[in-house]
Amino acid sequence: MSEIIYMQGITKTYHLGKIQVRALRAVDLTVKQGEFVTVMGPSGSGKSTLMNIISCLDTPTSGKYLLEDTDVSRLNDNQLAAIRNKKIGFVFQTFNLLSRSNVYGNVELPLIYSANAANRHSKVLDSIEAVGLSKWIKHKPNELSGGQKQRVAIARALTNDPAIILADEPTGNLDSVTGEEIMAIFQDLNRMGKTILLVTHEMDIALHTQRIVYLRDGKIFKQQQVESPIDAREKLKALPKLEDVS
Known about the structure:
Blueprint: E1 3-16, E2 19-32, E3 36-40, H1 47-54, E4 62-67, E5 70-71, H2 77-87, E6 88-92, H3 103-112, H4 120-130, H5 146-158, E7 164-168, H6 176-191, E8 195-199, H7 203-206, E9 211-216, E10 219-225, H8 232-236
Parallel strand pairs: 3-8, 3-9, 6-7, 7-8
Antiparallel strand pairs: 1-2, 1-4, 4-5, 9-10
Helix pairs in contact: 3-4, 3-5, 4-5, 5-6
């Protein structure tokens, strides 16, 4: 498998007046095409900074970062914005949906800012169908459950067919059953070949993925291969269903 993310010697130092805060210290990380990886660490460990750099929302102070062989550590703001739109799909804990737009409008949003507008309608419909929300396409966020909102966010992340999906605490605002349903969708997408990088504080969520990267004090201090990831669809069979989000 080819590497989608290659990071070598990544450091990030913030200057707060005369104080220097070293958020990342010589981080080396690779993520291969088709992997499902979790990043874990306590508050202040550097995981937010690492994810900001991976997502091209920030640049490292030093080191090399290649995203699909593009050295993004040397790009300017406009180039970084183009990379974010083309190669990265974002899923957030708080959904970040537009309240005045329906499901279709929210999922369509990345394509509006994309130079590639070909087959826009079919791409939106395919993404909505992939998360099981075709019946809810005209509904607005305030008419949806938390699980449905997160499904919309996942569909939105898919529309540009990104190289990688970055999910930041995607189950953090959901009950356990709905969280399993969301993890089942991520696992389905991963089986289809999507590369997914997930941040969570919950070990039982991390154990649904293939590898766990542990951060502490700005460094990766351990990585763990998950020998038998939890199958969310199998686990759901044993859990009581709290809501119907199909």
